[in-house]
Design goal:
The complex is a heterotrimer.
Chain A lengths: L2 E2 L2 H8 L21 H7 L14 H8 L22 E5 L18 H10 L2 E5 L5 H13 L8 E5 H9 L12 H6 L16 E14 H6 L20 E4 L2 H11 L9 H16 L3 E3 L3 H6 L5 E5 H4 L7 E4 L5 E9 L7 H11 L2 H11 L8 H8 L1 H4 L8 H4 L2 E2 L6 H14 L3
Parallel strand pairs in A: 2-3, 2-4, 6-7, 6-8, 10-11
Antiparallel strand pairs in A: 1-9, 4-10, 5-8, 5-9, 5-10
Chain B lengths: L1 H4 L11 H35 L18 H4 L7 H32 L5 H9 L6 H14 L5 H4 L10 H24 L4 H9 L4 H30 L2 H6 L6 H9 L5 H28 L1
Chain C lengths: L2 H38 L1 E4 L3 E4 L4 H4 L1 H37 L4 H9 L6 H12 L4 H9 L15 H25 L3 H10 L8 H19 L4 H19 L2 H28 L2 H6 L7 H10 L4 H25 L12
Helix pairs in contact in C: 1-14, 3-7, 3-11, 3-13, 7-11, 8-11, 9-10, 11-14, 13-14
The chains are: A alpha/beta, B mainly alpha, C mainly alpha.
Chain lengths: ~425, ~290, ~350
């Protein structure tokens, strides 16, 4: 049952591969996510991690203070009451929104066009985020100084979202402007410890990290089908395994393998994980983004740590996603309005717009990640019945029960963990 | 040792076997080698062009599947791509212009004049080339952001250095291009015969006329080479741009961004287009020059 | 017009010419670089800001933590420079002296790679050197006796990284060599040919063999393949080249006159190769990571600015020292100036 391989579903997925380039990145797994509430209830641990950031805003505020004289300093009253304006600058990950594949709007996003029609706001949609850290690096100093970053809306992974919120760099959402979000946000995504009332964020998409393998290659190696993370250490696969370049994904699954809870992981446990993985590196283990799909196809890589959304597009019935016995890692990307945004009202209108189940279904039918909007499964049935039962988009309770989130790290921990990870990767 | 050896060497060439082989090798070997070397240089370009006709299966374009014109039919079918390309071209053009002008002035000064501080300047010109791009990029970012804070914000108008965008990429590209221009132009000017200028002055031309009538035409090939180098460095730059681009995407940044997750065939199509345009431009200018002569 | 004003103008002209460009570099290079150094001796974090504490902890950890990546950088950078030089010199020589009416065409072809993106070129190498690529295919086709293991691969090995570096920086070597060679007065070469007896150097093949063996051995070592095999191959090639190609007049006139180009070319290759991380990222594996990868990772992934800054600073200073030493070896009058770099 751990294997996601029903023939019908697979076939249904394959018919749409050509138009679903989906992909994207590296989902940094991470932090408390969609199932944060669930985790908090069952492990009692997720809640302990977030408050570490609480003391921050005062520092940031004092740094920002001298900039009050800046020409168009937007630190003044948030314009969420004001007029909508005519533009919305939205930074997102690549291939993370629906794109029309035919008709006069071919190559454009129907959702963005519909939004413009409904509100008169043109969305300057930029696929500018391919990594949380490098994106935030380009706006950090502006945020610190309370200046306009150029963006009105951005989608960042939980751990980064939690950090920025803790630092006081994110604008509060005027809830009166987002009734759809209030009503339709999936229950599992409410009450997250780092933003319990959704004052600062609404989820854009979620995704899972687990084990993937190529059936043919693994059979050739004389192995039974993979069922758990630990199978990646099997000597029969040596030299034909890849892990992910995202620290939280790789350490997360590594922790699950050793029975460590990723939600409370410590530096010592990270070192344990590194020691556990080091022999594989010597055998030729490589770290990749989602190019493992290519490596699956040419037979070079037989098994890997993979992201849930990827396998739907691999184009090969032999590539299989496994929900490992130890559990999966779960992460979300969240819509945030950076402090200093010039078009907060428009950003809120957009959040509200995409939380309309119809629109959410339209986006989901293209990007194929885990949907944060209640009622989207009903809507998606109308356009794509097979998607409504796909556990990769709408996970079953049994799967949800084994989802783990990575600890929300302090910036010191983040640096130490990343250094350990980079050392493992040779840099 | 050679002084002893030479008296025993043959006084005049005799057509020995070795000599014939040498002649053959000299006559055929070097051209053949050149052809091979050029083929080697062009091989990845050929692969790029070939794979622009690949059929997109899955996310990555690493493996040949089938001939397809899909990507060519819809070359900019990926959001943000066209804008990124235009930005790349504009920045490359403007930064080449500025860096070539500034760099040529420095090169002229360093080769034609002896003055206190010349060696120090020579050393100074080296520094940007001896600096990893990533250092330049990260440090520039902090500089730009600082200009948005007091007291600099009262002096520097908003939009010039901050927020990050077109201007800041341009500034960065001019910065790292200057040294390369200086180096290339100087290499050309080092063999420059000063007597030509002196002759011109003797004949009554002033410095200005001498520069434009004598010096400039002579060093022009060097300047052109420098400009070409600057243009290609700029249009290609990824690291420095990543730190200084803010809202703005250039083509390499766009490619790298998608590379983490996918490799659409369109990247090869655009690469091929840029390559083709460059070839046409160079061919065109050569023909024009020839006609002018 | 008075004589003093003329002299004053004479005196000021070079500075006026320098001023705009130097000013640009001071504001947009020196300022930020000083800032970078200050980061390396600061403590703190990106989110909360850094305080200048003059702590050199970031520097003292380097020998223990990062010597392997520094070693990789130096090894691959050196190999790439030597190989680009060996590949480029005959090419530049041919264009300069024998190019004839094809001179501009060949020159254009040499810089043609510049007209495509560095990233796309490296991606092309991923395809060419990849496990399903033509090179591996050819090797298995030629290998009729099945001496090459089925899982033989370039990707992730040092040879792939070095190949990428060599290819990507080749034009940086060829162009300065060509510029230097093209400037040589042909009459000097003719005079030398009249002066020296043979069209080749006496015992040139011996020197060629020895040099070739040494270089081949170094290449073998660098890409961690068989040193003796590469040394032997190098010796054979060296014998041929030394015996048939390298003349006395070349060694005594042409080559010395082209040294400025050699200097410029090797710097333009070595320095970017040393700091590169794109090739090691796309073509390498954990064991082939270079110092550029570390700097990149520490800046953008770990956000460990002090360490990244310290590494950058060490790299920069190391390069400057190496350049000065190199300039001295090549006997230039002052750094760069005399060598017309």
């Amino acid at each position: 049952m751990d294997e996601m391989g029903e023939k019908g579903l697979r076939d249904a997925l394959e018919t749409r591969i050509s138009r679903r380039t989906l992909l994207r990145r590296g989902g940094q797994i991470a932090g408390v996510t969609g199932v944060g509430a669930f985790l908090a209830a069952c492990s009692g641990s997720a809640a302990t991690t977030a408050p570490t950031q609480a003391a921050v805003p005062s520092t940031a505020a004092s740094a920002a203070a001298p900039s009050a004289g800046a020409a168009a300093s937007p630190t003044a009253a948030p314009p969420s009451e004001g007029p909508m304006g005519t533009i919305l600058n939205f930074a997102n990950w690549p291939a993370y929104i629906d794109v029309a594949t035919s008709g006069p709007d071919k190559g454009k996003s129907p959702t963005l066009l519909q939004f413009e029609k409904a509100t008169g706001v043109h969305v300057n949609y930029q696929e500018k985020i391919d990594d949380n850290n490098s994106f935030v690096a380009t706006i950090r100093d502006q945020l610190k100084a309370g200046l306009d970053t150029g963006w009105d809306l951005m989608a960042l992974t939980d751990w980064m979202a939690a950090r920025l919120i803790g630092l006081g760099w994110i604008s509060k959402i005027n809830q009166a402007n987002v009734p759809n979000c209030r009503a339709n946000l999936r229950d599992a995504l409410r009450n997250l410890p780092w933003d319990p009332n959704n004052d600062y964020h609404y989820t854009w998409q979620s995704g899972m990290t687990g084990v993937g393998y190529n059936k043919k290659s693994v059979a050739k190696a004389g192995m039974p089908p993979l069922t758990k993370v630990a199978d990646l250490w099997d000597s029969r696969l040596a030299g034909h395994v890849t892990f992910l370049t995202e620290m939280r994904d790789t350490f997360g699954l590594g922790a699950l393998k050793l029975g460590i809870d990723p939600a409370t992981i410590t530096l010592d446990q990270v070192k344990q994980i590194v020691n556990d993985m080091q022999p594989l590196v010597s055998q030729g283990l490589r770290f990749t983004g989602n190019s493992y799909l290519q490596d699956f196809a040419n037979g070079k890589v037989w098994a890997a740590m993979v992201w849930s959304g990827d396998l739907a597009s691999s184009g090969s019935a032999d590539d299989t996603f496994v929900f490992p016995e130890e559990g999966t890692m779960i992460w979300s990307d969240n819509m945030l309005i950076p402090k200093g945004a010039q078009h907060q009202r428009a950003a809120e209108a957009f959040m509200n717009f995409v939380y309309d189940p119809k629109i959410a279904a339209q986006i989901e039918d293209y990007v194929y990640y885990v949907c944060p909007v209640k009622g989207a499964d009903v809507e998606i049935k109308k356009i794509d019945p097979s998607a409504a039962t796909n556990p990769l988009i709408f996970p079953t309770p049994a799967i949800v029960a084994k989802q783990h989130a990575f600890k929300i790290l302090t910036s010191d921990e983040d640096q130490q963990f990343n250094n350990a990870f980079n050392t493992l990767m040779g840099s | 040792m050679t002084a002893i050896a030479r008296p025993f060497a043959p006084a005049r060439p005799r057509p020995t076997v070795r000599r014939r082989v040498a002649a053959l090798v000299d006559h055929w070997g070097l051209p053949a080698y050149t052809v091979a070397a050029v083929a080697y240089l062009l091989m990845p370009i050929a692969v790029m062009i070939l794979f622009s006709f690949n059929e997109q299966v899955g996310k990555f374009n690493y493996q040949w599947h089938a001939f397809s014109l899909d990507a060519w039919a819809n070359p900019f079918g990926r959001p943000g791509m066209a804008a990124a390309i235009r930005t790349s071209l504009e920045i490359a053009f403007l930064s080449t212009l500025a860096a070539t002008a500034l760099g040529t002035l420095i090169a002229v000064s360093l080769t034609r004049y002896r003055f206190p501080g010349r060696s120090a300047t020579n050393l100074f010109i080296f520094l940007p080339m001896a600096t990893p791009e990533i250092v330049m990029g990260a440090s520039l970012l902090t500089l730009f952001v600082n200009t948005a804070q007091p007291p600099l914000d009262t002096v520097i108008p908003k939009g010039v250095l901050f927020p990050l965008g077109f201007n800041t990429i341009l500034i960065a590209h001019i910065m790292f291009n200057i040294s390369y221009v200086v180096v290339t132009v100087k290499a050309r000017m080092a063999g420059f015969d000063r007597r030509l200028e002196e002759a011109s002055m003797d004949l009554g031309a002033n410095e200005w006329t001498t520069f434009w009538k004598v010096t400039f035409p002579l060093i022009f090939p060097g300047i052109l080479a420098a400009a070409l180098l600057a243009f290609s460095l700029s249009i290609d730059d990824f690291v420095v741009t990543n730190f200084t681009s803010g809202l703005t995407n250039t083509f390499p940044i766009w490619v790298w961004g998608s590379l983490r997750n996918s490799l659409p065939v369109q990247i090869n199509v655009v690469g091929t287009m840029i390559f083709g345009t460059a070839v046409l431009l160079v061919l065109g200018s050569t023909l024009l020059q020839r006609r002018a002569q | 017009m008075s004589r003093t004003s003329h002299l004053l103008r004479r005196f000021l002209t070079p500075y006026l010419l320098l001023a705009p460009g130097l000013l640009w570099l001071i504001v947009f290079f020196i300022f930020p670089t000083v800032q970078m150094f200050l980061y390396s001796v600061s403590t703190g974090s990106v989110d909360f800001g850094y305080r200048l504490t003059w702590s050199f902890a970031a520097f003292t950890q380097i020998p223990q933590e990062f010597s392997r990546q520094f070693a990789n950088s130096i090894l691959y950078g050196t190999l790439a420079t030597i190989l680009t030089f060996l590949i480029s010199y005959p090419l530049a020589y041919f264009i300069a002296f024998r190019g004839g009416r094809y001179k501009n065409v060949i020159l254009f072809l040499v810089i043609a790679p510049f007209f495509t993106s560095f990233l796309i070129r490296t991606i092309s190498w991923q395809i060419i050197l990849g496990d399903n690529g033509p090179v591996i295919g050819l090797i298995h086709t030629v290998d009729v006796f099945h001496q090459v293991p089925q899982n033989f691969t370039f990707m992730g090995e040092p040879i792939a990284v070095v190949s990428g570096l060599v290819y990507n920086f080749l034009p940086f070597m060829t162009l300065p060599l060509y510029v230097a060679l093209e400037r040589i007065d042909l009459r000097l070469i003719e005079a030398a040919q009249d002066l020296y007896a043979g069209p080749w150097r006496p015992r040139g093949w011996i020197y060629g063999a020895l040099g070739g063996a040494a270089l081949g051995g170094l290449v073998g070592f660098g890409i961690s393949w068989s040193v003796p095999a590469f040394a032997a191959a190098g010796a054979v090639l060296g014998t041929l080249i030394g015996g048939f190609f390298v003349s006395e007049s070349f060694l005594r006139v042409t080559f010395p006159l082209s040294l400025p180009g050699v200097f410029a070319g090797s710097l333009l290759t070595f320095i970017p190769a040393l700091g590169d991380y794109v090739n090691a990222t796309l073509l390498g594996s954990p064991k082939t990571q270079m110092i550029g990868n570390v700097i990149q990772a520490r800046f953008l992934e770990s956000n460990d600015y002090p360490t990244a800054s310290a590494l950058s600073f060490v790299l920069m200073v190391g390069i400057i020292i190496a350049v000065m030493a190199y300039a001295r070896v090549l006997g230039t009058e002052d750094l760069s100036g005399g060598v017309t770099i």
